[in-house]
Design goal:
Blueprint (H helix, E strand, L loop, with lengths): L2 H7 L7 E6 L4 E8 L3 E9 L1 H5 L6 H23 L8 E7 L3 H18 L3 E5 H12 L7 E6 L4 E8 L2 E7 L5 H11 L6 H9 L23 H16 L6 H27 L3 E5 L6 H13 L3 E3 L3 H4 L4 H13 L19
Helix pairs in contact: 3-4, 5-12, 6-7, 6-8, 6-9, 7-9, 9-10
The chain binds 5'-O-[(R)-(carboxyoxy)(hydroxy)phosphoryl]adenosine and zinc ion.
The site of zinc ion (ZN) has 5 residues, from helix 5.
C-alpha cells in the first residue's frame, strides 16, 4: 500500500502525540504536544550567535547549522518528554515561509521520520503557527478573536472567525515591524538580533524625538514602517554629518513608541469595530515588553480579554507548529512524500 493511502486509512486519535519541527530561519526547534494544547517538551538549538558576527542571518550558514542540530534537537525533545519514536502519532513540520535551504532540512527530516514510522506528515505554515501560539497559553481559547501578528516578516491585524476562516483586516504596505526594529538596531550600532537590543536600549531613554505619524489616524488597518525607519536613519545621519552627538537611548525609545503604539491602537480598534471580546498576539515582536504592557493596559480599559503567549512562544519555536499541526491533524490535512519547502506563503494559506 502506498504511504499516503496507508496514512489516510489510519484511525484518528483524540489526544494524538505530535512531534513538531521548525527550521525556517536560524532556530532548529522541536516540540512534542499531546492533544494539541499540552506541551510535553519544546527545545531549541539556535545559530543566532554565529549570524551575529555578520549582522544578520546568513542563509547558507543557517542551513548547515540546521543539518548539524536537527537530530540533536529531536532527541532532546523526546528525552525531555520521556518518550520514544514509537509513541508518536504524527509529525508536523514548517514547510514555509522562510529560507528555502533552512526549511528543506526540517521538511526532509520530517518526511523520513513520518515514512519510517508509518504516521501522518502534517505540513504547517509558519505564519499559522504564530497565530496558533495563543492556543497554548489559553487552553479554552476558541475563535472568534482578533490577532495582532507582528514578526520579522509580517505585520497584520487578522479577524480569526474560525480555526480555518481568517479575514485579514490590514497588513503592512512595506516593511514588517520586526524588520524595522532590526534595521534601526543596525543604525544604532546594536548587534543582531536587533529587536530585543533596541528594547533594552529604549529602557534608558527619556525624551521623545518627534517621529512621522505613519498611518496613524488613517482609516483601516494597514501599516507602513518604511517612513519611520527612514526617519530614524536620517536623524542619526544628520547628527553624524554635523558632528553632533545624539542620545541613542532617546532615539530607540522614540522609535519603539511610534512602532508599537500604532499596532496596539489598531488591534483595539479592530476588536471594537468587529465586536470581538478577545485579542491575541503572535510573532517575535510580541515578546516586546512595551507592547505587552501597553496592550495589556488598553485591553483592560476596554474590558477586552488579552491572550498573550509567553515570550518564548512569540519568537520562533516548534510548539506553535505543533499547535497548528493538531488543527490540521483533525482535518486530515496530511502531505505525501513529495512535500516541498516554500520560501513564500501568504497569511491566508494553510
Ligand atoms: O517571529 P519571529 O521570531 O521570526 C519571524 O517569523 O520573523 O520574529 C523575529 C522578529 C525580529 O525582527 C526580531 O527583531 C523581533 O521579532 N523581536 C523583537 C523582540 N524580540 C524579537 N522586536 C522587538 N522587541 C523584542 N523584544
Ligand atoms: Zn517566526
Amino acid at each position: 500500500m502506498k504511504y499516503i493511502d496507508k496514512i489516510k486509512s489510519l484511525p484518528k486519535k483524540e489526544d494524538p502525540i505530535i512531534l513538531a519541527i521548525e527550521s525556517s530561519c536560524d532556530e532548529t526547534a522541536c516540540a512534542i504536544l499531546k492533544g494539541g494544547r499540552e506541551v510535553l517538551s519544546s527545545e531549541i538549538i539556535s545559530s543566532a550567535s554565529v549570524h551575529a558576527i555578520y549582522g544578520g542571518v546568513v542563509p547558507e550558514i543557517a542551513s548547515r547549522a540546521h543539518t548539524d542540530a536537527i537530530d540533536k534537537v529531536v532527541y532532546k525533545a523526546l528525552n525531555k518528554a520521556n518518550l520514544t519514536f514509537s509513541d508518536l502519532d504524527a509529525i508536523a513540520v514548517t514547510y514555509g515561509a522562510g529560507l528555502l535551504g533552512a526549511l528543506l532540512v526540517g521538511v526532509s527530516y520530517a518526511k523520513a521520520l513520518a515514512f519510517s514510522l508509518g504516521i501522518p506528515l502534517i505540513p504547517v505554515s509558519h505564519i499559522r503557527g504564530h497565530l496558533a501560539a495563543a492556543y497554548l497559553s489559553d487552553k479554552e481559547l476558541k475563535p472568534p478573536f482578533i490577532t495582532l501578528l507582528a514578526s520579522g516578516g509580517h505585520t497584520a491585524i487578522i479577524h480569526v472567525l474560525d480555526y480555518d476562516n481568517f479575514e485579514i483586516l490590514g497588513s503592512t504596505l512595506d516593511d514588517a515591524v520586526g524588520e524595522a526594529f532590526d534595521k534601526v538596531a543596525r543604525v544604532l550600532g546594536l548587534p543582531y538580533p536587533g529587536g530585543p537590543n533596541v528594547e533594552k536600549l529604549a529602557k534608558d531613554g527619556n525624551d521623545i524625538i518627534a517621529m512621522p505619524k505613519m498611518l496613524k489616524g488613517s482609516k483601516g488597518y494597514n501599516f507602513s514602517y518604511s517612513g519611520l525607519k527612514t526617519a530614524v536613519i536620517n536623524y542619526a545621519h544628520k547628527c553624524q554629518q554635523k558632528g553632533e552627538t545624539f542620545n541613542k537611548a532617546d532615539l530607540a525609545k522614540s522609535f519603539q513608541c511610534a512602532a508599537i503604539d500604532i499596532l496596539v491602537d489598531k488591534a483595539i480598534d479592530a476588536a471594537c469595530e468587529k465586536k470581538v471580546d478577545t485579542i491575541t498576539v503572535g510573532g517575535g515582536v510580541g515578546a516586546n515588553g512595551y507592547l505587552r504592557e501597553s496592550l495589556s493596559k488598553k485591553c483592560a480599559d476596554k474590558s477586552i480579554k488579552l491572550v498573550l503567549p509567553q515570550k518564548c512562544m512569540c519568537t520562533d519555536n516548534a510548539a506553535m507548529i505543533g499547535a497548528e499541526g493538531y488543527l490540521r491533524y483533525l482535518k486530515g490535512d496530511f502531505a505525501d512524500l513529495d512535500l516541498n519547502a516554500k520560501a513564500q506563503v501568504g497569511i491566508e494559506c494553510k
